[in-house]
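Quick one, T. Sequence first:
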Amino acid sequence: MCSFSVLKQRQVLQNRVVSLRQQEEEVPVVRKFEVCFEDCTWKLTEHDGMIGIAQLHITNFLYARTMRVDNGGEHLFELGTMRVSNLLRDTPFPDTLDRDSRHPSSSSAVRVLCKDLAPVGGIALKEHFEVNIAPMVVQFTFKFFDAMMTFFFPERNEGHAHVREANLDVEEGEREKAPARRLSLSRRITGGLSMVRSSGRATSATLPIAVDDIDKMRQRANSNNLFLYIKIPEVPILVSYKGNKEKNIEDVRNLPLNFPLCEYHEKNWTWLDLSIAIKQRSRRILLQQFMKQKLLRRAKGDDKTPISDEEKKRIAIGVTIRY
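Structure tokens:
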């Protein structure tokens, strides 16, 4: 009975999406604009504006936006080249991100495409979100990663610990094994709409939740996006990483890895949720590649650093890389 109900809800949702897509084709475009420049340097700093975090050098920047009457449309974002420098003190990697010269190409270094359908009850509906990245050389530390996450997602450290702990990158098969804990997208839409439309008229006698909590729930609902399809194709990267301690088993230099394919369907996420899900998947897949590369290097004699008993245990049960 439960499976039939879920299937019916999914069919209703799919019919609704098809209807929205057909309507979108008929909705007239009211505005188109582009922002482009050839060369730009952007410096990221702490809140005081004095302490530098990173510096980005960008060339051939393009942002194009198409807007329709119903607030649907399309976003296109492209970067010809992008070089990121680490401005934190005592960093072993001044150059954090750059295009890999071993893979020459005339394509853009970064390309982001996002297609929006008309909002449903004020909730943004992302029909298609795709990120294409050219092969990169990535050199970073745990300290740098933490500083960048705090810069772009300050709410990450403001009472949102539950978001970090939740496992957002769940495989389709794993979700099907636990249907009771899974909310269908139709139900999530309904819940989101109810949260957006709720007001502070409820009193403690009818709803034993503080008004501040209701405001937080409404604010989170407003920041959610319904992603129908997300895709980030696989890309080769050359990685150097330094952990939070002086010596870490996960420390590597010039390690060739493949950033995994990230593909998701029907997700009710904030942008922070999306970044955490991508981090969780990439961490899991890259860890597997890392351990194979690490063991192969030792087998060939390229890495002669002795392994302590503690490190052997961590290799046997798996390493948790903090980033």
